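Lecture notes, continued. The same structure-token format from the folding unit now serves as the input rather than the output. Read the line below as a description of shape only.
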């Protein structure tokens, strides 16, 4: 990477305008959002080189949380230090907060209206197809060796049949990958030496060859300052919430639960949704499986990270359990709690760990641990596909038979996504329009 002075050739105001724009155009889920950033930042603007972009992406995928939002934060941090990272990550999320909040209010208040219910009925089969496609896409990248298939299968059995908690599955998969990479490197595909980054033609503001910027080097003092600020930003709202609503209240419970989820969401939005759905619909009883499907459908139609579906879960938990507040006030508070606790750790992971993950770049044993986690995520997403598929396509169980119109829509949506590569947004909107038309016609 070039020296700090050269990186600052991109004015902060110019970068800020781009980050605001990105927040409004970041449709298509993580893959689409990463593709947009690659096209804009690597190919068009030349703010970062190809290898540096891939470097940042690889390490964001090591972290729990939304990798696309963390990638934006990482690049903003490389360009303009801490405030650059905060601006990039925040504006990646802010537009979707307001859009999804408005959609959630309409859903909660008018979800039983024929038009709204019909549109959602059309979106739900599309969501099933989206999750099935995610299984195939993630599996195609993650299951490179036989041992990865075994880890994925064990992960699916653990979460679907044995109800093993998702965090424990992630931990065991990571340990398996780490130990397996050390003991049986050939089986786990660990190279004898880390690959070298190739030389890239052309100039980029952040390239592969210049001196490291000072803020990308590890500093214990900076680490402790950042950690103290992050702890204060987490503790202060929590203390106020407990003083207002009480330790045992729904919203205090949400604050603790979504904080935990933020630390175990390896694998992106689909894996965290599997974990949250498992807990929120069974152990906690905050929402129903059908509401979880509806939330994912709404999140697919908004810009920003798909993990924003957790804001919907927090909203509906508050709406369903107002605890002395009006349903709307309780729901909005639950949505804000879920959003704050979901994304605050993401900023800290980048600002605290960025300098250190730069140092360990290319470590083959770390890569082996990540490959184990990623393989386990495939099994978790498969579990999510079955849970959603049962709720949408076989709502009355196998004995009751499938809902044939929904099954046909799922198959059609899968073909559009997987075979013809139609953008997710248009498939979801098309499903909603078809569901609305069928409801009005019936």
């Amino acid at each position: 990477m070039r020296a700090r002075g050269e990186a600052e050739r991109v004015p902060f105001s110019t970068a800020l305008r781009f980050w605001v724009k990105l927040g409004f155009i970041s449709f298509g889920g993580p893959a689409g959002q990463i593709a947009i950033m690659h096209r804009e930042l690597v190919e068009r603007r030349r703010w970062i080189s190809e290898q540096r972009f891939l470097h940042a992406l690889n390490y964001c995928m090591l972290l729990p949380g939304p990798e696309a939002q963390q990638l934006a934060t990482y690049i903003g941090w490389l360009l303009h230090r801490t405030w650059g990272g905060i601006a990039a990550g925040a504006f990646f999320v802010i537009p979707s907060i307001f859009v999804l909040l408005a959609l959630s209010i309409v859903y909660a208040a008018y979800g039983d209206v024929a038009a709204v219910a019909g549109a959602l009925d059309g979106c739900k089969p599309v969501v099933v197809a989206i999750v099935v496609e995610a299984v195939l896409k993630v599996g195609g990248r993650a299951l490179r060796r036989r041992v990865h298939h075994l880890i994925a299968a064990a992960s699916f059995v653990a979460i679907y049949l044995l109800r093993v908690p998702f965090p424990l599955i992630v931990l065991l998969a990571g340990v398996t990958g780490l130990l397996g990479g050390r003991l049986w490197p050939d089986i786990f595909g660990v190279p004898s030496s880390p690959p070298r980054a190739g030389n890239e033609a052309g100039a980029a503001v952040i390239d592969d060859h210049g001196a490291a910027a000072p803020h990308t080097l590890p500093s214990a003092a900076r680490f402790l300052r950042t950690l103290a600020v992050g702890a204060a930003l987490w503790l202060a709202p929590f203390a106020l919430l407990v003083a207002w609503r009480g330790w045992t209240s729904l919203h205090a419970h949400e604050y603790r639960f979504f904080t935990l989820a933020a630390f175990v969401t390896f694998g992106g939005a689909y894996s965290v949704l599997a974990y949250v759905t498992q807990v929120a619909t069974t152990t906690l009883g905050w929402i129903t499986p059908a509401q979880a499907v509806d939330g994912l459908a709404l999140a697919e139609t908004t810009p920003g990270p798909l993990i924003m579906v957790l804001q919907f879960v927090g909203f509906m938990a508050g709406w369903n359990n107002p605890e002395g507040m009006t349903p709307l006030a309780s729901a909005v508070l639950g949505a804000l709690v879920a959003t704050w606790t979901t994304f605050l750790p993401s900023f800290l992971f980048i600002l605290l760990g960025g300098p250190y993950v730069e140092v360990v770049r290319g470590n083959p044993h770390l890569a082996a641990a990540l490959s184990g986690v990623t393989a386990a995520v495939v099994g978790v997403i498969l579990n999510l596909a079955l849970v959603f598929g049962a709720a949408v396509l076989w709502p009355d169980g196998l004995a009751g038979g499938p809902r044939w119109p929904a099954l046909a829509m799922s198959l059609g949506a899968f073909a559009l996504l997987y075979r013809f590569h139609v953008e997710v947004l248009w498939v979801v909107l098309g499903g909603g329009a078809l569901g609305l038309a069928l409801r009005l016609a019936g």
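Point for the exam: The chain has one domain: 97-190+214-441.
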